[in-house]
């Protein structure tokens, strides 16, 4: 590459200060020689070269100056056009469509393009896989099988929100096991308990799953979170799901958070009510019967 005339002039000026003989500009047909030649045995102070370096002007762009007359091309309206929201200094949100209902509301993504942000992804684990892993010696049926054992034995891959136990080819399971997973199907629970095993469902967050499967990543330990949503709390309080929160349900309560505890009357209260009923007149008994029928009819017509 042949240096330009401006670059050669700058070099000549610099070399003149260093008392170095410059080389004239070569012709286009000749081979480009070295930029300058140094006499033998002469010392050069290179610090002055570093002090005279300049940036290439084309590497920087000047700020756009608007409102400086019509000859600049950005005068009068400064390139914003006439009136309207774009001409003034108002805020235009991202994907603004002029005030109409946005397309992502009127025509939302459906089908394969739709992604539910609240959906949880559970890794499926079948009973036939558990039996094969036991036969291969990759799982120990005498010890509780947790997410850590399933992750290390590669029975499941890439645990995101948990592991769900399914009952595909459940007849292959012959060994009683104790397994702790996040969720389990009704058929899987029946099969595991039919051969003398035990199953427990437990809630884990994604951070909790990382702590259980890879505890070496948490040198200071980690506190496992409890469920906060109503759906998760009711799921792990339900004995049908073998949840780990079943012991927290008191007698007379329901797994649902909207349970109603029926009052159990004592023997003394029952005897007292029996005596009061015997003292009633026929008119009072008839009035009580009518009130009871009215309340029953109102309960049948109630809209939930």
UniProtKB/TrEMBL annotation:
Pfam families: Ribosomal_L27A. Coiled coil: none annotated. The keyword Ribonucleoprotein applies. GO terms for cellular component: mitochondrial large ribosomal subunit. GO terms for molecular function: structural constituent of ribosome. Residues 124-200 form the Large ribosomal subunit protein uL15/eL18 domain. It comes from the Eukaryota. Keywords: Ribonucleoprotein, Ribosomal protein. Residues 58-113, 269-290 are annotated as: Disordered. Residues 269-288 have a biased composition (Basic and acidic residues). Residues 77-93 have a biased composition (Basic residues). One of its GO terms (biological process) is translation. HAMAP family: Ribosomal_uL15. Belongs to the universal ribosomal protein uL15 family. This is Large ribosomal subunit protein uL15/eL18 domain-containing protein. It comes from Drechslerella stenobrocha 248.
């Amino acid at each position: 590459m042949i240096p330009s005339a401006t670059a050669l002039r700058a070099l000549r000026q610099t070399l003149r200060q260093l008392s170095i003989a410059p080389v004239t500009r070569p012709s286009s047909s000749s081979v480009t020689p070295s930029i300058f030649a140094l006499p033998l045995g002469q010392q050069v102070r290179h610090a002055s070269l570093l002090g005279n370096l300049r940036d290439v002007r084309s590497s920087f762009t000047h700020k756009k100056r608007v409102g400086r007359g019509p000859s600049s091309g950005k005068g009068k309206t400064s390139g914003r056009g006439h009136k309207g929201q774009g001409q003034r200094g108002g805020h235009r949100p991202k994907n603004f469509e002029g005030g109409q209902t946005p397309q992502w509301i009127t025509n939302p993504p459906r089908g394969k393009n739709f992604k539910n942000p609240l959906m949880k992804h559970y890794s499926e684990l079948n009973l036939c896989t558990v039996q094969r892993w036991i036969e291969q010696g990759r799982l120990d049926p005498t010890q509780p099988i947790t997410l850590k054992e399933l992750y290390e034995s590669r029975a499941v891959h890439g645990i995101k929100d948990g592991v769900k136990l399914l009952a595909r080819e459940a007849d292959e399971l012959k060994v009683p096991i104790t397994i702790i997973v996040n969720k389990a199907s009704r058929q899987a629970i029946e099969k595991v308990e039919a051969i003398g095993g035990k199953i427990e469902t437990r809630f884990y967050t994604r951070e909790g799953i990382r702590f259980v499967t890879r505890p070496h990543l948490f040198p200071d330990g980690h506190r496992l979170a409890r469920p906060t949503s109503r759906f998760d709390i009711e799921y792990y309080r339900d004995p049908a799901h073998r949840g780990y929160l079943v012991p927290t349900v008191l007698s007379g309560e329901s797994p649902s958070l909207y349970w109603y505890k029926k009052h159990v009357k004592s023997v003394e209260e029952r005897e007292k009510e029996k005596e009061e009923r015997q003292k009633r007149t026929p008119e009072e008994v008839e009035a009580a019967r009518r009130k009871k029928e009215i309340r029953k009819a109102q309960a049948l017509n109630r809209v939930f």
